[in-house]
Amino acid sequence: MHNLKPKFSHIYVEKDAIGYPLTDIALSKFHRSTVLEIDHYKDIFNRPGQNFQIQKSSMKLILAKKKEPYIYPASEMVQDYDTPNVYYNTPILNCLYNCDYCYLQGMYDSGNLVVFVNEDDMMDAIDNKVSNPIDPSKPTIISISYNTDLLAMENLFPLARRWINYINGKGNAAIEIRTKSSLFHAIKDIKPSDNVILSWTLSPEIICAKYESTAPPLNKRVEALKNALDSGWQVRICFDPIILIDDWFETYSEFLNKLFQEVDGSGIRDVTLGVFRMNKDYFNKIRKRDPRSDIFFSDYSIENNIIVVDNEKRISAIDKLENILLKFLSKDKILTWK
After folding, report:
1. pLDDT tens for each residue of 28-71
2. pLDDT per residue as tens digits for the range 146-168
3. Domains, in order of start, for the chain
4. How far apart are CA 129 and CA 223, in angstroms?
5. Which ranges of the chain would DSSP assign to H, the alpha helix?
């Protein structure tokens, strides 16, 4: 492993991606990288025989032009946001972090990072959904970081900033930027927008250390979250996935009580709560690759092609944690997946 090249030592650029502003930004940021022109990103990203985990240790950057579809319906594995107008898009494929439980290692064969440079096409697709909602009485919410962590990339690509500027003032619409990053300071100069939800995924320190070791530690995430709240942003906290380790209830009880001594629950937009779950095909694919984590050797049920904690056990766990959260938040602010 010591012979691996540094991250982004090579940049693959689709011919169709040449000349876009994001392409120029990337090439200027990594001017010492070897640049290789390619016909299509899938020639690199989808080639057989790749090792996801090794590539994560020496990620290469692929700049590509996204083709349709530019936007997708929300997964059934996300919490109910009280609106049918929920979507996600994929400005970036893969993430700088490499959490043990992440489904991306089962979704993709490659650990490399793809950045789609034609953001205007994706924004136009959102405009169309906002103009033609399923339910006009409800807001339209688009997660722009399901398959990545945009804020973690902000020092390299100003994507979060560009998306915030795009959505600002767009009526009954909002983007969610979900993150484990501590880089709120990279967008702190932007005026808070009612059209933006900044969502931090938080876990107890023992979970962070064991399963999220490549992401910033808990205290750094909480500091970033508090700075966002103090600056006037809408902030969501994601307690998801809940990992039912030994003594999980004591671990999460202590974590939640301590967290809300630091964070004023009245200022939080909402929280999400859900146990570990994953598409069965992704789960099995990861397990066959000799995964690093004991998560993939625990006991689960299969429901609608989803690997998930047994129904009775997960409902009990969510209900117990929800009761703790009710000390700090009203029930309408707690979005659960059971």
Report:
1. 999 899 999 999 999 999 999 999 999 999 999 999 999 999 99
2. 899 999 999 999 999 999 999 99
3. 10-337 (3.80.30.30)
4. 34
5. 21-29, 42-45, 52-56, 104-107, 119-131, 159-167, 205-211, 218-230, 248-262, 280-288, 311-325
